[in-house]
C-alpha cells in the first residue's frame, strides 16, 4: 500500500518536488495537495493527477488532508509555518513525518508548534530541483528515526541529490546550494554584459553566456568531476584563459564568494531569530 503524502502549499518549489516524487513511481492517487486558490488546485489536479484542495473553497482543507497521512510537506512561506503547524497538530497521525522546506525555520520552532514526539525533518532544497538536478540537505529532529529519515529521502530522491547534515550546518547549506543558483545566474549575466562590451549583439551575448554556463554545469555533473581539474584542463600555460584566471585571482574572486556566502548565512540566522520572536 502506497504512503499517503500531503503537500500543504505547492508553489514552484513544491511542484518541482511533487514532479520528482511522481516520476520516481509514487502513485498520484496517494498524493494530496492543498493550495489557496481553486484555479491552482484544478491546475495541479489536471497536470499531475493528484487530489488537490482549495482553501478558499474549504477552510478545513489542511486538516482534512493530513488525516491519515504518512508524510506531510510544509510548503508555505517561513512566516506561515508555525501557524500551519499549530493548525494541523491535532489532526496528524503520531507516526506521520512532517517535512519543512521553509528556509530559516528551526527544528525547535517546528517541534514547538506540533505535538510532543512528532517526527520533524528540516530540508533545504534548491531551484534546480525543477530540472531534476537539485541538491537537498536534510536535518532530522529529536524524534526522527532511520525510518522517518528514509521517508524524507524518498520525497526528494526523484529530484536530485539528497544529503544528511546536522541542523547547525543548514545556514551554510543555504548560503552555498540554496542561494548558489543565483550566484551562477549572476555570473552568466556578467559574462553576457562583457560580451556586449566587446560589441557582440545582445542575442549572441546571451547565447554565449547561457550555453557556456549550462554546458560547464553538465561537465561538473559527470561522475568524479572535480572543478579544479576541469579548470586546469581549459587553462593552457601562457594562454588566454590563464590571463583571465589570474585577473580573477588578483581581483580576489575566491574571497568575494566567501564574503558573500557568509553574508547569506548570517541573514539566514537573523531570519531564524525574527521568526522565533514573531
UniProtKB/TrEMBL annotation:
PANTHER family: PYRROLINE-5-CARBOXYLATE REDUCTASE, PYRROLINE-5-CARBOXYLATE REDUCTASE 3
Alphabetically ordered keywords of this record: Amino-acid biosynthesis, Cytoplasm, NADP, Oxidoreductase, Proline biosynthesis
EC number(s) stated in the UniProt entry for this protein: 1.5.1.2
Job description of the protein: Catalyzes the reduction of 1-pyrroline-5-carboxylate (PCA) to L-proline.
Protein name listed in UniProt: Pyrroline-5-carboxylate reductase
Subcellular location, principal: cytoplasm
Pathway: Amino-acid biosynthesis; L-proline biosynthesis; L-proline from L-glutamate 5-semialdehyde: step 1/1
EC top class, as a word: oxidoreductase
Gene Ontology molecular function terms on file: pyrroline-5-carboxylate reductase activity
Family: Belongs to the pyrroline-5-carboxylate reductase family.
Keyword Cell inner membrane assigned: no
Native organism: Arthrobacter cryoconiti
Location of the protein in the cell: Cytoplasm
Pfam family, one: P5CR_dimer
